[in-house]
Amino acid sequence: MYITGFKTYMQRVDDRPRLLLKIETSEGIDGWGECYNHGPDWALPPLFDYLFHQIDGEDPRRVEFLVLKLNQQCRFPPGAMGLAAISAIDHALWDIAGKAAGLPVYMLLGGNVRDRVRVYCGVYTAPDAEHAKDETQRLHEEYGYTAFKLSPYRRDLHSGRWGELVKETGDWFARIREITPSNFEFAFDAHAKIFEPYQAVQLAAAIAPSDPYFYEEPIRPEHIPAWAELKSKITVPLATGESLYNRFEFLSLLTARGADIIQPDICVVGGVSEMRRIATLAEAHYVTVAPHNPMGPLATAVNVHFCAAQPNFKVLEFKPHGHAPWAVDPYIPVDGHMELRPDQPGWGIEIDEKVLQSEDYIHWERKVTRKPDGSTAYP
């Protein structure tokens, strides 16, 4: 069996663009992967045209060999765009390998170490406590969720005194705790909007009395010593990693003792192969893995297989999708977990390629926050 072609499809999931890759083979066994759209989105299809020539005619089941080849043919380490493309290729190769063997991918990774995969739902806003109660109860009744993620900001970070925002957040979370079931977990994603680490410490102290599930990415990821200092000063579980690209960056974070939970993205770091290396490094540092996954149904399927086989997995991010018509049978939570599909080879998800023939791309770009003085802030 050998690789004969790549096909790319620019699509969307809800209001975000997504790129899907199909790898075709001489035996008629196809594999699918999903790419992280860092932007510029339309730079990705020609990049796949280039990468195809690096592995054209190769045996797709040699996943490690081919992913190493794609990485090593770069004179300099691939960045966001290159690794996103390699991630999708890696996914598709694993899918082919599983289908060729007649096995789910997690069985090729050593088999499942758990029977199902726990998920949490990203709400991504900071609704009034009563609204948060209603929304989380609805998600619990419909999907069985008992873990959720909110924003810790009740208003614009740059309007008013920082201490007021901190107090409002602490009081608000305390109220949520009062009116929601005691077994519900609430994490908070600060979206790397805080520039000054001492402010991140203050915000952590405000939510600490109400026992947050974890405190995600309060500051930027670039300066690892700041993460080590931050972790030493807070008493809540600290999570980060969606903006880190490879095992070497994660190794720097881990050796600095800069996080309790890491959140690599399987569509960013180079796919399943690199994700497993990163997770193994974390395991050696007593750190758990909660994959970043604001992606589509295909990326979710890939994550489910990784999580099923990874010993130090903690929880997977998943928000139910409203619009992804190309996913025929997406993984959907049952009792707050994704069930495995042991009788389905590859990723265990069917892609309707006919639907992908229809243009359904949507443009999206991150908005840049402006401070009261007109200067820009981290969005």
From TrEMBL:
Is rRNA processing a UniProt keyword of this protein? Answer: no
Biological process, per Gene Ontology: amino acid catabolic process
A Pfam family cross-referenced in the UniProt record is MR_MLE_N
Positions of the Mandelate racemase/muconate lactonizing enzyme C-terminal domain: 129-237
* InterPro entries listed in its UniProt record: DgoD-like, Enolase-like_C_sf, Enolase-like_N, Enolase_C-like, Galactarate_dehydratase_3, Mandel_Rmase/mucon_lact_enz_CS, Mandelate_racemase_C, Mandelate_racemase_N_dom
Q: Which parts pass through the membrane?
A: none
Q: What are the recorded GO MF terms, alphabetically? A: lyase activity; magnesium ion binding
SUPFAM superfamilies per UniProt: Enolase C-terminal domain-like (SSF51604), Enolase N-terminal domain-like (SSF54826)
Could you tell me the superkingdom of the organism this chain comes from?
Bacteria
Presence of the UniProt keyword Cytoplasm in the record: no
Q: Which UniProt keywords apply?
A: Lyase
Which PANTHER family does the protein's record reference?
Answer: D-GALACTONATE DEHYDRATASE, D-GALACTONATE DEHYDRATASE-RELATED
What is this protein called in UniProt?
Mandelate racemase/muconate lactonizing enzyme family protein
